[in-house]
Structures are given as structure tokens and as C-alpha cells.
Automatic annotation (TrEMBL):
Name recorded for this polypeptide: Hexosyltransferase
Family classification: Belongs to the glycosyltransferase 31 family.
Compartments it resides in: Golgi apparatus membrane
Keyword Transmembrane helix: yes
Keywords: Glycosyltransferase, Golgi apparatus, Manganese, Membrane, Signal, Signal-anchor, Transferase, Transmembrane, Transmembrane helix
Keyword Acetylation recorded: no
Signal sequence coordinates: 1-28
GO molecular function, one term: hexosyltransferase activity
Gene3D superfamilies, alphabetized: 3.90.550.50
Species name: Cajanus cajan (Pigeon pea)
GO CC terms: Golgi membrane
Pathway: Protein modification; protein glycosylation
Named cofactor requirement(s): Mn(2+)
Record-listed E.C. numbers: 2.4.1.-
Length: 313
């Protein structure tokens, strides 16, 4: 009798085990569904949280970013202050960002350490290169090679600037005209400016004048890593730069901005042109009279607002 009763007990035990295992499977399935739901919800929340930053970055990426680097000398305090007025009073069109920086080599005088420091504290628009001041012995090379290390922030858009313009401190650049000219152009392998010789309109003829030439950021990075600019530094800086482009076969997207860029009309020369509305840059503004005439022609101060505090006829 005992042997017979053990069979039903075994069957009930096996049935109980099966039901228990089935219950565990159901419970596991429910937990998996809940877990997946939580994961999906978390992804959704994180995605939504990251949208504003992503959106901001996208909007920032849409902006055309230009760095204008004015190569000058440490002692040119008055010239820098004047150029800050000239560029600071130009309103750049929406969708573009133009930064103007002043570039020179190491300070060599005690008074420079104080006066330049004051400028930096007030304006934060000076780049001091680790070089001895010179015009045609590598200053331009040092400048371009230094840029990727100076602007190597991990945060913010890449590249930090789409274009870098090297300009002289006797050049007047009309910022919005420059922006309009650059906006439709390629943002890679670009070499832009006033082609030399002055009588040529072929941008592949020789090189772009040092009055103010523009390159895209990928060329800046190439200069930083290439041996060509390191080994060939002496000579007229604009011609040397053109040699780099030719030897390395860079700057294949070339744009001749002549005659929107030109030398001041007095004295007349093959490189000069009368002032006219279709102007991006005017070069060789060597004295105050030429600057005043140029600024007056382009109605630079027309946006001055009336006030009881002054009367300017």
C-alpha cells in the first residue's frame, strides 16, 4: 500500500515543481519587460536632456567662423587701439562670427610687459608668439603653426574657425563684405586673396598678397604638422606662404578677390584702385589722412546715434 501511495505523491510533487518553475519564468518575463521599459524611458530622458546642447552646437556649427589675425609690433599701442575702434564698430551679419586678434613676437622691454598686460586684461585680443620679432624670417610660419595649439579646446565647435585671415595693420577690412564673399566658398583647401603679380587675375599664377590672405582651417592644421613650413621660412612672407602651397599642392580651391581687395589709390600703381562700394579690403593706409578718407567713403560712422551729449555736424 505504501508503494502505491508514493506514486501520486511523486506526481503532485512534480506538478508543483512545474507550476513553480512556470511561475518563475512568468515573473522573469515581467521583470524583463519592466527593465526594458525602464531602459527605454531612461534613453528617452537622456536623449531629451541632451537635445538643447546638441541643438546649440548645431546652431553654432551653422555660423561661419572667421579669425582675422593682424600681424603687428608690440610697441604699436596706438595702432591697435585705433583698429579696435575700426573693427569693434562694425556689426557683423547674423550667422557669422568674426574675431580680430593682434599678433606679435615675444616682448623685449620692461614697459611692454605692463602695457601689453593691460591690453590683454581689458580686451583679451592679443596673441604673443614664441619668436623674435621679424618680418620675413619666420613670424608668419610661427603664427600659423601655433594656432592649432592655441585653439585646441575640446569643448565648442570644430573647427574653431572655418577660415583664418592674416592681415597687415595698415589694411582696412570690411567685415560683412568678407563674410559675404567667403560664405559660398569651400571650407577646405581654400587659399583666398589678392593674387600677385598685380596685373594677373589667375589665382594659380603665384601667391596671394600679404595685405590680407585667407586659408581654411585644414590648411592651418597642415602647416602645424608639415616640415615644409619649418624648413622654408625666410623671404617675403606672402611669397614664402605661396611656395608652401605650391610645393605641397595645397590650396587647390583658390579665389582671387581682386578687385574687391586693392591698395589705396594714392599713389596710383598697378596694385591700386579707386575706392568703390564693392570693397572687401583696402591696403597701404599708412597715415591718418588715408584712414579718414577711407572710413568716410564707406560711411563707417553713419550708425552714430544722436545724443544731447555731443554735436558732430
Amino acid at each position: 500500500m505504501a508503494a502505491k501511495s508514493s506514486k501520486p505523491n511523486r506526481s503532485r510533487f512534480m506538478l508543483s515543481c512545474f507550476i513553480f518553475i512556470f511561475f518563475l519564468c512568468v515573473l522573469a518575463s515581467i521583470n524583463e519587460v519592466r527593465f526594458n521599459g525602464i531602459l527605454k524611458f531612461r534613453r528617452c530622458v537622456l536623449s531629451n536632456e541632451s537635445l538643447p546642447a546638441h541643438s546649440s552646437t548645431s546652431n553654432e556649427d551653422d555660423n561661419l567662423r572667421i579669425l582675422i589675425s593682424v600681424l603687428t609690433l608690440p610697441d604699436q599701442y596706438l595702432r591697435r587701439h585705433f583698429l579696435r575702434l575700426v573693427y569693434g564698430t562694425q556689426t557683423v551679419t547674423e550667422g557669422a562670427k568674426v574675431d580680430v586678434k593682434f599678433v606679435f613676437c615675444n616682448l623685449t622691454k620692461e614697459d611692454q610687459k605692463t602695457l601689453v598686460a593691460l591690453e590683454i586684461m581689458r580686451y583679451n585680443d592679443i596673441i604673443i608668439l614664441n619668436c623674435t620679432e621679424n618680418m620675413n624670417k619666420g613670424k608668419t610660419s610661427t603664427f600659423f603653426r601655433s594656432l592649432p595649439e592655441i585653439f585646441n579646446e575640446t569643448e565648442g565647435p570644430y573647427p574653431p574657425y572655418h577660415y583664418v585671415m592674416k592681415a597687415d595693420d595698415d589694411t582696412y577690412v570690411r567685415l560683412n563684405s568678407l563674410v559675404r564673399s567667403l560664405r559660398p566658398l569651400p571650407r577646405e583647401d581654400l587659399y583666398y586673396g589678392f593674387v600677385i603679380p598685380c596685373g594677373s587675375m589667375d589665382p594659380f599664377k603665384h601667391y596671394m598678397s600679404g595685405m590680407g590672405f585667407v586659408v581654411s582651417w585644414d590648411i592651418v592644421e597642415w602647416i602645424h604638422g608639415s616640415d615644409i613650413p619649418r624648413k622654408h621660412v625666410e623671404g617675403p612672407e606672402d611669397k614664402v606662404f605661396g611656395d608652401w602651397m605650391r610645393w605641397a599642392r595645397r590650396g587647390n580651391n583658390r579665389y582671387n578677390a581682386k578687385w574687391s581687395m586693392y591698395n589705396y589709390p594714392d599713389p596710383p600703381s598697378v596694385c591700386s584702385h579707386e575706392l568703390w562700394n564693392d570693397t572687401i579690403a583696402v591696403h597701404l593706409l599708412k597715415n591718418q589722412e588715408k584712414w579718414v578718407r577711407t572710413l568716410t567713403y564707406f560711411n563707417h560712422t553713419d550708425s552714430l546715434k544722436p545724443s544731447k551729449m555731443y554735436h558732430i555736424p
